[in-house]
Amino acid sequence: MSFGPHLLLAVLEGLVSSAVLALTALGLSLVFGVMRIVNVAHGEFFMLGAVFAWWFSTMVAGDPALGFLLALVLAPLVVGLIALVAERLVLRRLNYDPEATIVATIGMLYIFEQLALMFYGPEARAVQAPFDFRVTLPWFGYSGYKLAIIAASILVMLATWFVLTRTRIGLIMRATQYDRETAQAFGIPVDKVYAGVFALGAMLAAIAAVLIVPIQQAHYLMGTDPLLLSFIVVIIGGLGSLRGTVVAAVLIGLTEGIVAVFFSPTLAKMLATLFVALVLVFRPQGLFGTAAR
Amino acid sequence: MTDKRKSSLILTKPLTRRTALKGLAGGLGAAAALGTAPGFVRYAQAASSEPIKIGFECHRTGIGAAYGRWYERTTNAAVKLINDAGGINGRPIKLIVEDDGTDAKRGTEVMEKFASEHKVDVVFGTLFSNVVIANGPTAGELRMPYYVVSEGHQVASGKMNRYVFQPGITDVKSQVMSVAPFIVGNLGKKVTQIFPDYAFGYDHRDNLPPAIEKAGGKVAAQIAIPPTETSFTRYFPQIPSDTEVIYHVMVGPAVLTFVKEMGEFYGSKGPQLFGFIDSLEAVDMATPGLEFLDGSHFWEGSPRYLQANAGEAQKFYRDHVGIDENGAAKGDPKDVSTAGHMFGCWETLYVIKKAMEDAGYQSPDDKKKLIEATEAMTAFAEGKEHPQGDKTFNGKTHQCFGHQNISQFKDKKLAVVHRTSIEDGMYEPEADYTTEKL
Q1: How many Å apart are CA B414 and CA B387, to the nearest integer?
Q2: Which domains are seen in chain A, by residue range?
Q3: Which chain A residues are within 8 Å of B68, Cβ to Cβ?
Q4: Which of A221, B94, B205, B392 makes the best surface tag, with the fewest CB within 10 Å?
Q5: Running along chain B, 438 residues long, what does each successive block of 10 average in pLDDT?
Q6: What is the ipTM of this complex?
Q7: B270 touches A: beta carbon within 8 Å
Q8: What is the DSSP letter of B93?
Q9: Who among A121, A128, A260 is closest to B234 (CB)?
Q10: What are the residues facing B328 on neighbouring strands?
């Protein structure tokens, strides 16, 4: 294959992974930004999203689009609910202590993973894409659904941005992020905000998973990779920064796509990790983060 | 099983109020005791009525979990049959299952646990070649007979030691040699090979090119993909455009993505495909996206779909393992088996049984005799103990040789179109373990 089409394929692949990564990392970033919690179980919410997507989509017979839409609506809700319960049962009881919550979320990671293995099983199961459209280019074919993922991800991201910057809920969240105690003094129910943010973070991961599951199958171990990449994105972009997360996700996704296609996927991972190290040394708050207060 | 045990207990012991109370008080502990209690009755004629302990190292979790689940079901079915028929040398088999997480490091820990804690007679059942390769030296150090069901070439290549056997499933080298003439003769001469980037994949990488060349073809490109990869489109540009056949063998949970993305990439005008069923084990062939594979060919160790000419032994085996004519669990068509490989567990258990009987195996002191008895075997006849087909066994390389099936995928099913002969997969022995000291 000549260079031009090869590069086009690499960019397309990179954009698809960027789109999914941005959503997943946004959830992680939000939870850290507002709650100052490093949620190691974040990848498992991604996995649960995919597993529930499979479950809901198999409940509807007939047009695959119906099952997919049902999954797109219900799976994030269920995952949000699970996150809410986990937050109430575990994180709140630890007073959101940063060290304790890391250990607790590691525990949650294993619990969710093993529960999925017990009840869902070890197989990788596919969800049918809502539409089956192959874009035929002169050099190769490309999945139309993958292009739709990019669009959907942009929409969800815009919606999140709108909520955070243009609504009262977003204002409350930002106030809590800025200064928890002052926010509390002004009558903001910080406790409820925390619960909501944790659920929202999980839901964003779940939405990303529902979008990806028609091309990547639901499997109980699928949470590990997104978790690692989300951390990379969030560290590079700056914890708690929406803009930074998106920029870093596109950066990492495209690098990964292009380097992996032209050289090797291992080199792509090495570069991403190297980039994280460089950011940590020269700009510890991340590209767009503000220094911790 | 539990019911049977309870009734035999009641029949053989007079039930007094005191024993009844004891039984009740025993609670959970009694359940463990019950495990041996009927043994005293049924196997009373044996010199020792202690069960023979077989350690089953199972991939219950990790990337091999789908295989592990079916390896366990197959093993349980065979153990039950053997025990119902009187066990081995009059002693029942006690299966001890440990999960290795499909992880090489954990595997060696499990091996040590089997030896020191469970004190098993033999260890059996490992599939993933990276785990087997890590375990082999440990088995040798512990002087633990180790019967793997891996299909990797590591045993026959001489990399292992005198304690490691693979008598129930053929190795990759033999499989590749058997199918290469079919690929070149029927599908095309220019082959591009896609394989997982670890031990098992390397067996394919190293053995396919000479086999294809011998058949008059050429391997044009070899593409290694990490087994944990989740997206594959990025690898396809590496496939040379004049490729006539793509030879694919993938493992792990993302295999379905691999096939679907290949379909999107090529559409209907792609090269011919020849795959190892490993690429689709435990995957429902009716899964949307797999239409792309229609008409393509697969290697299968044992056919997943019940073939029209299947013999009694095959039906008997499928019935007892609990798979239907489509190779899925009876009662759950979505729970698709790893039929291409799991027969190896069944056959290996019967080899262990035969070897123990030949050796007059009584206790771990007889391990040397057991090794020698296994090495003395030369052939296994097709039958209920070897439902995949007849096999020969090379006691020097510790590896069996058998028939391979080439199936075509059509109408959402796999139908066997060619069955190779045992001779097709024979090669010069690369090792002689019998020269090693026991």
Answers
A1: 19
A2: 3-282 (1.10.3470)
A3: 122
A4: B392
A5: 42 47 42 41 57 96 91 97 95 96 94 96 94 96 96 94 97 96 96 92 95 96 86 87 93 79 85 91 84 92 95 96 95 93 97 96 94 97 96 97 96 95 95 93
A6: 0.73
A7: no
A8: E
A9: A260
A10: B336
